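Archive entry. Fields below.
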Amino acid sequence: MKKLINAVDDVVKEQLEGMEMAHGDMLAVNYEPFFVYRKDAPVSGKVAVISGGGSGHEPMHGGFVGMGMLDAACPGAVFTSPTPDQMYEAAKKVNSGAGVLNLVKNYTGDVLNFETAAELAHGDGIPVQNILIDDDASVKDSLYTAGRRGVGTTVIAEKIVGGAAEDGYDLDKLADLARKVNMYGRSMGIALSGASVPGADKPLFELSDEEFEFGIGIHGEPGRVRQAMKSADEITEMMVAAILDDEAYTRTVREWDREKGEWEEKELTDEPFASGQDVILFVNSMGGTPVSELYAVYRKAAMILKDRGFNVVRNLVGPYITSLEMQGASITIVRADEEILKYWDAPVKTPGLRWGG
Amino acid sequence: MVTKEAVSKWLDAMTDIYLENQKYLTELDSAIGDGDHGNNMARGFKKVREKLPELQEKDIGGLLKGVGMTLMSTVGGASGPLYGTFYMRAGGAVDGKEELDLADVVALFDAGLGGVVSRGRAELGDKTMIDALTPAVEALKAAQEAGQSVEEALQAAAAAAEQGMKDTAPLQARKGRASYLGERSIGHQDPGSTSTYFMMKTASENLT
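PREDICTED_STRUCTURE:
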């Protein structure tokens, strides 16, 4: 597969070196182990927000490091979770004393590595909490699977939680907000083509010119169905309906009990969407789909939401959580309230998102 | 008694078996996972081999904990923290020991299993490494009760792990990426249970 790379083993390192050279005014990079951190970290009195995951989804997460969003991002190898030493070293670097909130996408590797990192940070006396992002409505069942995957809501949560951290939220209040944003957000993704990781001789999966996959994950995890290719409007209708008609979703998450120094299991249930709600509409490219096509998807999604009585009060359109060169798109809808909008609108200055201030 | 040299030989043999089976584990993982298990285990144990001379200066507990830390920071994915936790807890169960009797060997694997269960929250039958490790630990305990030798106990454990590994094929995955395949995961042997079988097989051949 043709790719603009020098050597497969250097892909992540050279990407980080380039980011540091391009965005040295906002961020810096630690190379052993890998993490990207805010240039002015630790920010006095502020809870630090950390995220991370496999590489290949850029600009998420490294491109969201900076004022008003993440304090650090820990990149793993392409599509492979980072290791606990990365998150632990990052936590030590960016902790101002107010503690660290880890935003963790729900993939088994990410969850286990972030949990180990949280235990290490706790052992060093760093106040820490992990909040899970699991918004992929494609996955119906949490009992017999690893549960819903973390996808588009991650970007929205990183922005909102980052804004609130900047405004002085303490660790518990920030964790409550992160949990709320996750529970208010749901996503659906589709693929028109597969993607291949650097060095692989074939794509993760293949789709013919006549078909698309509905409900795909951002690492090519299998979706709900494979169907004959349809128009932008028809595919958008399927995606929006899957989100709006999604029923209540219950899962058990593990959050850190700082008093006891152990994991506490919590059962959380999201409520379905209801007509009349204000929402943020986020239309995302998987990497290979051009922005022009995203606007066709946005157009139809916004019309459906209006018809069904929702108010789209904010939006985001573009490639923000990608899957290498995969052709495809995802729609994320997040219910918005006053607190969420306040911190969505708050100033942000990162390579990937920048407004206000 | 199992000496520290035997434990080092075990770790060395495990590095060999993971390197020899890198492609095989990756093929198993490509069928139902993300196809990186062979590469991840090989990368982790190559690092263990590199660090072994330094780690050997510690007692057996310290040595195994060092292996756990090494795997934790080099393997990634889900298997990094799972195997990392296994060796860290296993080491914790034999802290300060320079040699192991059967009770120590049982304690070592039992503590490792406990670590994997609490970290991964998998249950028996979820089509994970637990399905090979649990019967292996049960076999060790049964051998201990029957008054068998360390060699006999570990041979029984390796045989139990092999059976447990084979028995994952008809199971439907309920953990990890394979769980999204639902019924389509049936018919494939679990890669994690396979790398666990290799661990028990090399233990039976070297911890004597």
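CURATOR_NOTE: The mean pLDDT of chain A is 96.
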